[in-house]
Amino acid sequence: MARRGCSASSAAVVLVLVVFLAGGPLLRCHAAPQGALVRGLPGFDGALPSKHYAGYVTVDEQHGRNLFYYLVESERDPAKDPLVLWLNGGPGCSSFDGFVYEHGPFNFESGGSAGSLPKLHFNPYSWSKVSSVIYLDSPAGVGLSYSKNTSDYITGDLKTAADSHTFLLKWFQLYPEFLSNPFYIAGESYAGVYVPTLSHEVVKGIHGGVKPTINFKGYMVGNGVCDTVFDGNALVPFTHGMGLISDDIYQEAHSACHGNYWNPTSDKCERAVSKVDTLIDGLNIYDILEPCYHSTSIKEIIPENSRLPVSFKRLGVTDKPLPVRTRMLGRAWPLRAPVRDGRVPSWQELASVASGAPSGVPCMSDEVATAWLNDDNVRSAIHAQPVSSIGSWLICSNVLKYNHDAGSIIGYHKNLTRQGYRAFIYSGDHDMCVPFTGSEAWTKSLGYEVVDSWRPWLLNNQVSGYTQGYEHGLTFATIKGAGHTVPEYKPQEALAFYSRWLAGSKL
């Protein structure tokens, strides 16, 4: 692949050498692949707000396993600002979800008819305002990433982390100008598994002397799954605290289940938890403040004779109607379905079993992203393989057979933070899918000393949430009024806490 280096006359080279020897600033040399530069985007008029690059990195030459990335350089100072890798969850959902719907450089407006090209407008709360962001489709088989050997679509947490680490090492070889930038890994939902396991691989590589050396500083997880017991037992206390169930119903469940709600061991506990489920059945589980886009009456019960885990036999529906998009946050974990060891059913599989026919992610309308990313001109502009070659882009993959094989993620968090890597765990306080009660509980379970007591954090002199800081650089925070995908519900607040945390400032 052609490379774009630093060209200069002999006189200029001498001048740079003199400045360097005198202790002056060294010229930043861009070595990004020339063919990866995005020169324009269909649906957007005018110059891009910063340099964008996109393309593939081959992580397995023999199999032809290729991961797709989209880099948005910082709109402020890409030479010094942090570099962040963003991962969406699922498992198996595309990080273009974050690019299109959450914190990418544009807001996407519907073209007005099904399949028409969306219109792109500047997003004033893009995370590229303060950092460079790599949006990565991982593992292969997700989004625009693919393999020529379909056996690669049988994968899991550990293989995904190893491949993503290989991607990073090769990516930094293509973009060595970013090696000195502080590097962070961030994501949401099932990325509560992706982010710490990849961080572990990066740190292991650093200790092993693997080159290039990544300037890794820490990681962020939003509304992330972590541990079967903590996540599974979070729902009932959440519903009680939010006033969704009465004190009597809560006490009944607590007494019958002894705090073990996710895996009832008695009929009495099962009945108590079922009563809670019935009472919250009509709510948007991804943000209890928002209405469901689809009527809850379309929700199907998965047949008892299906091979899916019991915890997957009830699905929530939701959407947040917005002027420029209408969608359900379907890549989130289903209601009362904590991450467990073993095979994780895909969203496509769940929808097929529930309805009797393939129907995509349940109750989801991702028309804007789907129309844009399946347009031939868009694919060409971002250097992605055409639909005719790798198929249509889907928000969540329908080809993966994915295994959760990393176990509880608590050990990963403990190992990383004790080595001095900063960790930011945040939750939308109205997310009922991965409730903050579980995330707060497992962060407390690490046993770290509190160094910044629970307090409000402010934006424009208004309370935007609450936070608590622990030793070893661990921070937990809630975002007031936010649902499962915080930047989508609260983009201004999300940019505020993101930029402050990256800068090492208190919320």
Question: Outline of this structure?
Answer:
This protein has 16 helices and 17 strands. With 507 residues, the chain is an alpha/beta fold.
Features:
507 residues, 3-stranded mixed β-sheet, 30% helix, disordered N terminus, Rossmann fold, alpha/beta, 12-stranded mixed β-sheet, 17 strands, 16 helices
Low-pLDDT windows of residues? 1-27, 294-336, 353-364
Strand content: 15-25%
Query: What general outline do the C-alpha atoms trace?
Result: globular
> Mean pLDDT score, rounded?
85
Please state the oligomeric state of the protein chains shown. single chain
> What's the main sheet like?
12 strands, mixed
Whole-number total of structural domains: 1
Structural class: alpha/beta
Number of helices: 16
CATH superfamily: Alpha/Beta hydrolase fold, catalytic domain
What would you say the CATH architecture is? Answer: 3-Layer(aba) Sandwich
- How is the CATH topology named? Rossmann fold
Distance between the termini: 43 Å
The level-1 CATH class? Alpha Beta
Instruction: Classify the helix fraction into a percent range.
Output: 25-40%
> Could you tell me the radius of gyration in angstroms?
23 Å
The total strand number stands at 17
